[in-house]
Amino acid sequence: MLDLGSRSYPIHIGKGLLDRSDLLRSAIKGRSAVIVSNETVAPFYLHRIRPHLQDLRLGEVILADGEQHKTLATVDAIYTALLEGQFDRNATLIALGGGVIGDITGFAAATYQRGIDFIQVPTTLLSQVDSSVGGKTGVNHPLGKNMIGAFHQPRAVIIDTDTLSTLPDRELSAGIAEVIKYGLLGDPDFFSWLENNMEALLDREPDALAFAIRRSCQDKADIVAADEREQGRRALLNLGHTFGHAIETGLGYGCWLHGEAVACGMLMAARLSVDLGWLEPLAVERIESLVRRAGLPTEPPAALGAARLRALMSVDKKVIDGALRLVLLRGIGQAVVTADYDSSLLDRMLERALAA
Predict the structure, then answer these.
(1) Check: CATH 3.40.50.1970 for 5-166?
(2) Do domains 5-166 and 181-355 have the same CATH topology?
(3) Rg of the Cα trace of the chain?
(4) Is the pTM of this model over 0.90?
(5) How far apart are CA 216 and CA 224, in angstroms?
(6) What is the C-alpha to C-alpha distance for residues 202 and 211, in angstroms, rounded to an integer?
(7) CA distances (Å), 326 to each of 189, 211, 323, 344, in order?
(8) Cβ–Cβ under 8 Å, residues 32 and 167
């Protein structure tokens, strides 16, 4: 459960939940719903949830797959489907897919007729442990990732761990990057658990996956409940993201998966923390070892160049009054949000990382 008073909602986690009609139906208040999915996920799972909604007026929107389609044009396609189908403000959108589908559907729900309900049914590890929880919705702009969006909480999050059986290995690893993030930003015991159980996660052992998902969702729910609109503590969840978003934007959306860019970004944040004298070098070695074992990149793409990467970082939601705030580390499990750092050390770290 994510506790937000009257807007609290359940986070259901378990095997076979797509076959539980009660979970979906209990979150739908009106008599109509629209499922939003993509060409990759729909053939696997759309038929599993459609029967639960047969007594409703039901619509479906199937989008192209990929981060490059996380745009206002795609949101407009959802608006068009809703308007052509004459769906009113009592309709509920159901996001069936990964983080891109969840973000797009949530943003459409936040803005259609000034706000309608939606439900998150995430099917990738990254969306299950991160983007489906917390109410951040939005789309990308050519100049910056997630720069257009809204806070809009779902009515429920339904995480069926069985959906991970069809997830490609690369996307599983990308999701593990966000799992590692929770250990780094405030849960050192979880980080140690990951060091002891990384191979079990990569082998998709059900108990290990279920534990990692539950722990990640609980860590995020606790932070969001304390700071829903990112006025303080919630900004810690952006560990690695300022660097990572710059990589994604610079390469072109979809070249690197979001989790791959975040993994590299977390290491860059850790290395800058060492340069500042805030973090022990041994901690960076532990982080790099875990990231490498997860099959994730440890260095940014040299083709971007330090000046380009630095410029892209300046187009970030964490820039306030011209100052770029970064999430840095004072230890494993001790993240801080700060603009109080030597920018010349940041530039040197970027040059060193890109040279590697």
Answers:
(1) yes
(2) no
(3) 20
(4) yes
(5) 12
(6) 14
(7) 24, 29, 10, 14
(8) no
* Catalytically active residues, by annotation: 114, 136, 178, 220, 230, 234, 238, 241, 245, 258
Cα 6–7–13 angle (5° rounding)? Answer: 125
Domain locations along the chain? 5-166, 181-355
Per-residue pLDDT 10s for the chain (356 aa) are: 899 998 999 999 999 999 999 999 999 999 999 999 999 999 999 999 999 999 999 999 999 999 999 999 999 999 999 999 999 999 999 999 999 999 999 999 999 999 999 999 999 999 999 999 999 999 999 999 999 999 999 999 999 999 999 999 999 999 999 999 999 999 999 999 999 999 999 999 999 999 999 999 999 999 999 999 988 899 999 999 999 999 999 999 999 999 999 999 999 999 999 999 999 999 999 999 999 999 999 999 999 999 999 999 988 666 665 689 999 999 999 999 999 999 999 999 999 999 87
**Strand, helix or coil for residue 338:** strand
Q: Are 191 and 333 in contact (CB under 8 A)?
A: yes
Q: Are 25 and 52 in contact (CB under 8 A)?
A: yes
CA distance 104 to 65: 12
Please calculate the CA angle 224-228-234 and round it to the nearest 5 degrees: 60
Of residues 301, 318, 202, 205, the one with CA closest to residue 260: 301
Taking the domain 181-355, which CATH number applies? 1.20.1090.10
